[in-house]
Amino acid sequence: MLRYLNEGDIRYAELRRDAEDFITKYPHRDLWHKPDALMKWFSIIRAYETLVSGPGKKVVDLGSGEAPVCHYISDLGNEVVGVDIQDVNHLVKQSLVKMVLKDAWLYMDEQEDESIDVFIDSCAVTHFSDYTSGDPNGQWVKTFEGAYRTLKPGGYFIISSDVNPSEDYGEYISPQRIIEYALASGLKVQSEPDYSGPWIPPQAPYAVYHFVFVK
Fold this sequence. Notes:
Blueprint: E1 3-4, H1 7-19, H2 22-25, H3 35-51, E2 58-62, H4 69-75, E3 79-84, E4 98-101, H5 104-110, E5 116-122, H6 138-150, E6 151-163, H7 175-185, E7 188-189, E8 207-214
Parallel strand pairs: 2-3, 2-5, 3-4, 5-6
Antiparallel strand pairs: 1-8, 6-8, 7-8
């Protein structure tokens, strides 16, 4: 569950997108044909379907934007909140997702301890900015600390994010570094990390890595 995504993930995503008519059910303005977006969205969906059993879960999408994942998870019978600092006029008009216009950390601060079943992140946290932790990668520190406090025991944090395999500090950092921050918060890895075979998008300095942490 902790690994670089690759071209096999793109093929899986394209097949599911077309076979299940995701484009019609969960319209998006421009990313349904972008390989790295597909990889991220469907890796989260596949992990959710594999790990989380039954409806009725409270799920929070941090920095949800217009991404379709939270709406799909809502349609599985879950209570889903999409949090973003921008007012998102998403195109999935039948969605029951509660869209919250708020800073993600402020939303997390307002939640009770051990009240959330699953957090998901489709490459939003890496773009958050916070240096109050004293660490230049404070966005990960603060997010993991909030997730650990508010996740129920056995709850999951499922992430697919751009990473830079050779950097420890900055907007895009190595998956090893992100895992270190998660472990420091008290979260555990769902499986042993695999650092082999990254797929690098054309003309991009980053790869895409999929993480699953559990409390």
